[in-house]
Specification:
The protein is built from 8 helices and 4 strands. With about 200 residues, it is of the alpha+beta class. Strands 2-1-3-4 form a 4-stranded mixed β-sheet, with helices on one face. Strand 3 and strand 4 form a beta hairpin. The protein is globular, with a radius of gyration of 17 Å. The protein binds glutathione. Glutathione binds next to helix 1 and helix 3.
C-alpha cells in the first residue's frame, strides 16, 4: 500500500503525485501534521511530502519520484541512457538549489498561502523574488529551446519537479509570471499541461 503524506497545494507534493500518476501507481493521500513531534519522526526537516510504501518511508520529492520509478512497473520516468539521466539530475538539482528558493519561498508561499490566510505580503519583496526566479529559469529556457523536455524527448523526473512551480506561477500577473518572455518554457508548460496526469493532479 502506498500513502503520500502532504497537501495537494504543496508543489513538491504535487510533483510526487505526478510521478505516481504517470507510473500508474494507486495511492492514498494523508495529511502532513507539520510542526508536531510526530511529524519530526516522519520528516526530520518538518517538510512534505513523505511517501510510505508498506512501511518503507522516503522524503524529498526527487527521491520519492525516483523510488516510485524504480519500485513499480510502468512507464519509465527516467531516460534509458547515462547522458539523459545526467541531464535529468542536473536540472532536478538546479531546480531545487537555484529556482525553488526564490520561486516557492519568495513568491508562491507569500502570494498563495500567506495571502489566503490574510497575512500581509510585502509586494516589493515578492516582485524581487519573482525577478530572481525568472533569471534562474533562463537556463531552463535555453535547454527547452533544444529539446522538448529537460532530459530529451520524453518527460522525466526533472520535468515533473519543475511543472507545479511553473504552472502555479502562471497565475501570477504580468512580468511575475515565470514563463513571461520565456517562450520555450511556455511551450513546454503547455505540453506538460496537456498530459492527463496534469488534470488528474491539479490541486482542488
Ligand atoms: N526539498 C524538499 C522541499 C519540500 C518543501 O519545501 N515542501 C514545502 C511544501 S511545497 C513544505 O513542506 N513547507 C512547509 C513548511 O516549510 O513549513 C523536497 O524536495 O521535498
Amino acid at each position: 500500500m502506498v500513502t503520500l503524506y502532504g497537501s495537494a497545494f504543496s508543489t513538491f507534493t504535487w510533483s510526487a503525485r505526478l510521478a505516481l500518476t504517470e507510473k500508474g501507481v494507486p495511492y492514498e493521500m494523508a495529511a502532513a501534521k507539520l510542526r508536531t513531534p510526530e511529524w519530526g519522526l516522519m520528516h526530520p526537516y518538518q517538510r512534505m511530502p513523505v511517501l510510505d510504501h508498506d512501511g518503507f518511508r522516503v522524503f524529498e520529492a526527487a527521491a520519492v519520484m525516483n523510488y516510485v520509478d524504480e519500485a513499480f512497473e510502468g512507464p519509465a520516468l527516467k531516460p534509458a541512457d547515462a547522458h539523459g539521466r545526467a541531464r535529468m539530475w542536473q536540472w532536478a538539482s538546479a531546480f531545487s538549489d537555484y529556482v525553488a528558493p526564490s520561486a516557492v519561498r519568495g513568491v508562491l508561499i507569500p502570494r498563495f498561502v500567506l495571502a489566503a490566510r490574510g497575512i500581509a505580503v510585502d509586494d516589493a519583496a515578492v516582485h524581487a523574488a519573482a525577478a530572481k526566479a525568472h533569471t534562474m529559469l533562463e537556463p531552463f529556457e535555453a535547454a527547452l529551446g533544444t529539446s522538448s523536455y529537460l532530459a530529451g524527448e520524453k518527460p522525466s523526473i526533472a520535468d515533473y519537479l519543475l511543472l507545479p512551480v511553473v504552472a502555479t506561477g502562471g497565475q501570477l500577473e504580468g512580468a511575475d509570471q515565470y514563463s513571461h518572455g520565456l517562450p520555450s518554457l511556455n511551450a513546454w508548460r503547455k505540453r506538460m499541461a496537456a498530459r492527463p496526469s496534469f488534470a488528474a493532479c491539479l490541486p482542488r
